[in-house]
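Record 1 of the preview.
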Amino acid sequence: MSPVTASGLPVPQRVAVVGAGMVGLSTAWFLQEHGVEVTVLDREGVAAGSSWGNAGWLTPGIATPLPEPAVLKYGLRAVLSPNSPVYVPPSADPKFLKFVLGFTRHSTMKAWKKAMGSLVPVNDLSLESFDLLTAGGVAARTRLAESFLAAYRTAEERTTLLEEIEHIHGAGQDITFDALTGDEARAVEPSLSKEVGAAIRLHGQRFVNPGEFVSSLADSVRQRGGKIQAGATVNGITDTGRGVAVSTAEGSREEFDAVVVATGTWLGQLARQFGVRKVVQAGRGYSFSVAIQHVPTGPVYFPAQRVACTPIGDRLRVAGMMEFRKPEAPLDGRRIRAIAEAAKPLLVGTDLDQREDEWVGSRPCTSDGLPLIGATRSPRVFAAGGHGMWGITLGPVTGRLLAETMVTGKRVPQLAPFDPLR
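->
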């Protein structure tokens, strides 16, 4: 007699994962840990979406919901400006308007605290999940941030993050830090300019080169017998009653026991027919790299400017912006220039006009700031996406817990708040 899950279905032996970013490949890897045969399909290839050019932070201490009270402080005039750290272009698209209204509704302290409480249990497992990947053969390593500095012009500017850390502690999230003067911050990180007058140094955080790590994760999936098909544009998923048929625009059709939709910003296109109604909106982020005289030993964050800097090899990756536009829209040079102009007064030893690797990627955002992880109306079709800015940090723990629920059929308590059908 074949083994069955607690939901009564046979334990899936062959699973298709649609999407070869951090979330999709982590899910495939942890399914392999349970002996499942996996095939990963992606319309482009490994790390082609938001997994490649982001900041690469592994920061469970500050993995917080994107809708927050501070967003409301920008005001309508600010968010309509292309130079704003949060840019919302005018649009009459009903789905976009639904997302913006929901996002605004959730940008209250009450909603933030509830969402933060939902994230704490998965945040707590996030770094351990990376360690499981590396212990299991993923060649790329995470790096401990010897320093992780959030830098400000004034001590008054710093109060916003200090208050948020209090709320993070109140939600049960462990995070330790030091409050530094500008001179103390420059002693830790000489690349900070004299404009920096105050800082917060976070402890216990890590970072990765995201493109390198995701590629290494893909290599491990292949080495363990998994298939990764690039150039496979999945355009149809059908629950046949016996399994799930997956068809592509390129003309292939194959049946599996189950499928995981991990397509980031495009998750709704395939999952909507299975009851996933939550709008997943592209929150586009930009980045570029520059040479710098003193490569920082860890990430540097300028919260007031919403600019994130990460050492990637011998260069500094500078990232920022939350631009709510269609994912297919071309890179907008104004956003790149706005990030560079915001960072120029705060960094020394670098020329932010000498940029390379200019990039834009679409982070999949939900209106309540929580991802969509779990079974859909079909017990054979699962969603894994909508992590906003935290797809890298939370990708491995997502794959770990989703794989567990798929092969056991049991409800994993940490995933309860992320029900795709909510």
